[in-house]
Amino acid sequence: MFLSSLLEPIKTAAREAGDTLWRLYQSGDYQEKTKADESPVTTADIAANDIIMQHLGLITPDIPIISEEVQLLPLAQRQHWPRYWLIDPMDGTQEFVARSGDFAVSIALVEHGWPALGVIYWPKEQVLYYATRGHGAFKQRGSKIRRIQVHQHHIDAPLRVAVSRRQPRERIEQLLPPGQQVEYIALGSCSLKSCLVAEGGADCYVRLGPTGEWDTGAVHIIVEEAGGKILDSSFAPLSYNQRESLANPDFVVMGQADLPWPKLIQPQ
To answer: At which positions is Mg(2+) 2 bound (predicted)?
Structure first.
């Protein structure tokens, strides 16, 4: 009951933040900056963050929040939290700046070290992806809601791999066995590519390069509830809030969970 009671208010928060991003995107009324780690950030990211933080403060004032756009507390102050919000106010800032429209709002609730609720909102398409533990994954456009599931891949069919528009494919190609037939599907935003796997539009997504736990929190529960998995590039589980840094390892978003993934994706 606790998770289900949170779902609609969190969907509202994600929509409001995302629609603000979309208005700023269309008007061009934002400024670009560079963080200390040289990743991009805009005043639109901050505006979306403020909206989400305000909503969460009203919905669950006693639950702490970790956001990409807020300074991270030391591990000693957060490692024993039984639950916390994990948010990325705008996943895909590079896509926002590059004008592709493929950026999204990501909000997750992590309980006892594992995502239990996840909401992704794609402003360009006005689409919500969401899931709560044990209740399936869903895609919503307007009032139309449908349950989503990963694609059941036939081993002789080409492997459909979601890839970035911004990153070279050579590193991905090196992970695939010789002779593997592949169809590449280009899309922006880490979370949107993961949701593409969750709804069966791709068989997998291999992420090589820097990400944070806020990039996987919401989509992790969505992918799992749709029948898939997210594991690191050595096929070990990811972790949440267990280290000083929230940097993720390279990871693989896998659709059909019982495929022989170590044969299909071969880490270097």
So the answer is: 88, 91, 215
- DSSP annotation string for 88-126: EEEETHHHHHHT----EEEEEEEETTEEEEEEEEETTTT
User: Which residue numbers belong to the known binding site for substrate?
Assistant: 68, 215
**Residues 22, 38: Cα–Cα separation, whole Å:** 24
Q: Cα separation of 24 and 236, whole Å?
A: 39
Indicate the annotated binding residues for Mg(2+): 68, 88, 91, 215
Q: Which of 141, 146, 126 lies closest to 199, judged by CA? A: 146
pLDDT at 236 over 70: yes
Is pTM, for the whole model, over 0.90? yes
Q: How far is CA 199 from CA 18, 131, 154, 195, in A?
A: 21, 12, 16, 6
What tokens appear for 209 in the block? 């390069």
Residue numbers in the known binding site are 68, 88, 91, 215
Q: Which residues contact 155 (CB under 8 A, 6 or more apart)?
A: 259
Tens-digit pLDDT profile for residues 105-117: 999 999 999 999 9
Residues of the chain with CATH 3.30.540.10: 2-148
- Which residues belong to CATH 3.40.190.80 in the chain? 159-264
Domain at 159-264: CATH code: 3.40.190.80
SS3 216: helix
Considering the segment(s) 2-148 as one domain, its CATH architecture is: 2-Layer Sandwich (3.30)
